[in-house]
Amino acid sequence: MNRRSLFSAFLLTILPRPSHAGLIENIFSKGKSWDVIVVGAGAAGLSAAVEAADNGASVLLLESQPEIGGNTLISGGFYASVDKKRQEKQGITDSVELHVQQTYELGGRLGDPKLVRTMVTEAQESLEWLEKLGMHFQPRVFELYGAHWPRAHIPVLPLGQGYIRTLADACVKRRVELKVKSEVREVLTKDNKVIGVGAYCGNEYKQYYARRGVVLAAGSFAANPDLIQKISPKLKGLTTNNAPGSNGLAMLAAEKVGAKLVNLEFIQCLPGCPPGKKYRVRFHNDVSHFIFVNKNGERFIREDSPRDEFRDAVLSLPEKYGFIIIDDEGFRRAGILVQKEAVKAIEGGEAWKGETLKELADKMGVPADNLIRTVEDYNEGVRLGKDRLGKKIHSLTLPIAHPPFWACYAGMTVHYTEGGIAIDEKTRVLNKNNQPVAGLYAAGTITGNVHGKNRLGANGLADAIVFGRIAGRQAAKN
């Protein structure tokens, strides 16, 4: 089945068209309208709402869930940006050109080069914008798993709480109007221009109208197992770490009015809760602190491999999961929330702690001699600065040497859908002829031509903030 027919069939099953939809006459006299409507209250949508308001627009923000925050709120919260102020203090050399190159090359050269450069070059200014709004970051950066360079900024508040608190406060101060439990399933048009959206508020269908533009920032489709399975059958049955609102309905609604969808087949997974298990423990966040082993207690892929290669390697294992090993130094650096995750998983029998590697291996059910030999071999590579599997060893890399030792299950969990709506560098939604759909903008994980086949770790929030801000400005000026 080709992509067009696949999505047409899917739409028919989940997006019944209300009998009164499309009968839009004298729309602005039928009810209140706004200059800009933003769909989705995660980092991208909140950033768009703030910028639209700062550019003189009245703004309505629609969120499908009972609470705002989306995936941002439950994310690791790490933000990728070149930042000489922080990096030079740690002896880290970095540049915009290197960040652009890594993002584009590791994405398989499938991202739009203009969008890649826009995201990277504006990431630091957007970081400073967040700080001016009241967001706080730690003074150090690190190499997040899948980021391929130490440029991930760490928020002071855990996970994505700092972003949502900061941006929500900014929206309140700018009198942005918010409606929750409002799931957008239709994009309204008149005379080939987007003029609003149709949303379900429980069982009630409502239409909201925008005088200048609509910004779609409703997230990915990573929490839609039916759609994931249709696009990538090999991922059938995997868990997801996404919020329930990441269902792709707004993306599919945009396709119905001509938006081009691209790169849908590229679906990123992270180490997480295997099918049938209950606990996800994020020992993998800092690539400098962990190793990954199989059921035989042996490493089988370098831990800083591109995320798509890592996914395929894990799914190729007979069990379709492995184990992450860290020592107590890595555990203490992981942060309080990860430590709490580990304690709960240990209580549930899905993570383990041992004063020796043998004790740990026995609890895990892997051959102790193999695990001890694996750790010794890895530590020797760290000492010599040359890893046998090719993992990059630098001054931030830690050996697995300080007891007690910790381990957890790590299967693949659906994390990010690189594909989605095609946009240009002004965040205008493009149709199949690469022409803008008048009045329609998009930002964040709902878009599909920024990262290519593989998104670098911590680029997601940079993408959301940078393009969310651009979309808000552009929609307000339309």
Automatic annotation (TrEMBL):
<keyword id="KW-0732">Signal</keyword>
<dbReference type="GO" id="GO:0016491">
    <property type="term" value="F:oxidoreductase activity"/>
</dbReference>
<dbReference type="InterPro" id="IPR027477">
    <property type="entry name" value="Succ_DH/fumarate_Rdtase_cat_sf"/>
</dbReference>
<comment type="similarity">
    <text>Belongs to the FAD-dependent oxidoreductase 2 family. FRD/SDH subfamily.</text>
</comment>
<keyword id="KW-0560">Oxidoreductase</keyword>
<dbReference type="Pfam" id="PF00890">
    <property type="entry name" value="FAD_binding_2"/>
</dbReference>
<protein>
    <submittedName>
        <fullName>Flavocytochrome c</fullName>
    </submittedName>
</protein>
<keyword id="KW-0285">Flavoprotein</keyword>
<dbReference type="GO" id="GO:0010181">
    <property type="term" value="F:FMN binding"/>
</dbReference>
<keyword id="KW-0274">FAD</keyword>
<feature type="signal peptide">
    <location>
        <begin position="1"/>
        <end position="21"/>
    </location>
</feature>
<dbReference type="InterPro" id="IPR010960">
    <property type="entry name" value="Flavocytochrome_c"/>
</dbReference>
<dbReference type="InterPro" id="IPR050315">
    <property type="entry name" value="FAD-oxidoreductase_2"/>
</dbReference>
<dbReference type="InterPro" id="IPR036188">
    <property type="entry name" value="FAD/NAD-bd_sf"/>
</dbReference>
<dbReference type="InterPro" id="IPR003953">
    <property type="entry name" value="FAD-dep_OxRdtase_2_FAD-bd"/>
</dbReference>
<feature type="domain" description="FAD-dependent oxidoreductase 2 FAD-binding">
    <location>
        <begin position="35"/>
        <end position="461"/>
    </location>
</feature>
